Amino acid sequence: MTRLVANQYYYFAGYIVLQYVVLASAWNILGGYAGYVNFGTSAFFALGAYTSIVLLKIFELPLPLLILGGAIISGVVGLGTAYLTLRLRGIFFAIATLALSVVLETFIVNWNFVGGASGIYITRPQKALFFDDYIKLLFVTMLLLAIAAAAIARSIERSRLGRGLAAIRDNELAAEAMGVPTLRLKVIATITSGMLMGAAGAPFPYYLTYIQPASVFSLEYTVNSIAMPLIGGTTTWIGPVIGAVILGVAQQITTVTVSSELNLMIVGALLIAFVILAPKGIVGFLRSFVHLRN
Known about the structure:
Strand order of the largest sheet: 1-2
Radius of gyration: 19 Å
Largest sheet: 2 strands, antiparallel
Strand content: under 5%
Shape: globular
């Protein structure tokens, strides 16, 4: 497949779109299914990226083990975050997750081993197994991660875990009264979501080759990972995928044709339009349209 496209830009752009598919699907497991709005996406993403840097500097591990390491560390932090914050609800939970991002960024800025505030350069390997260019390997890797994230989100949606999370979203007190183990389900959702976000961040040092706290803790990751499920639809696994593809492609086209500075403006404009015209996202709008026709 990678031999059919000669222009490398498509692999760079496609990598970012697929990365947002992973982040949006991961965010939706907790934010969409359970209704807990997480503002800590950039923190988990950065954890994956900086875990890769540490593992590269100490052990020089291959890419699959870097992804595994990023997912495990982000999952462990997700477990700690869950036990500390999941008794909070609404805006208090959202602020707590935002605080997590600020605390981690401050820690990284003051850790010279990973470059501190000035950042660190990472050199890509000269050879990529089965590929003539390393960026093609990164694109295929992120494609596999996007497929895995969508498959995990779909399996959760159709499982007892997904039905329990939906009960929490609709009415948590009623769910507890009916015997739903709300805290345990929220902890599982937070760990799963964090691991996927960390896995998405792990290959990022090889993609960018220069990592600094401002680039991986950017608010853009948090805003996009929330906006994409809202635009596509939060109650189903396909909604975040649709939202990520539409918004990701629009941002890449804008970056090339106009300016990357307009990306957040596009996100805001689309978000306002969908909140007014289709508050249940594209999937919800299509379902309502089909229901009316029948």
